[in-house]
Amino acid sequence: MIEAPAEPARLATALVRFTPGARTHWHSHVNGQILYITDGVGLVGTRDGNVVRVSAGQIIKCPPGEEHWHGGTDTTLMAHIAMVVGDANGDGTTWLEPVTDEQYAAALTV
Prior knowledge:
The chain is mainly beta. The protein contains one helix and eight strands.
C-alpha cells in the first residue's frame, strides 16, 4: 500500500507488481478504479471479453461496478499504481472467482 484510506479521505493507492502469467481474480470496485501502468506490458480484461494490452505510461479507467481483471502477459512483467475511492465500508472492492487458464489464454491473443 502507498496510502490506505483514512477519514475523511477514502482514496487507497497501491503499487502492484505482476510476474509473467500472474493476474488478479475477477473483481469490481463500487466507485471504479484507475490504473497507472508504471512498468512492463500487461492485460486488462472485462466480462464482455474486451481485453486491452497495456504498457508503461498508460492510464486505464475501470468504471464503477465493472467486473474486470489485470495482470502480466505470459512473457512480461507488469506493474501499476492502483487508485480506488472506497465507501463507508472500506475500499469498495468485491473479489470474485479466479480468471481461468482458458480465459487468460484467450486474452493473450490480443
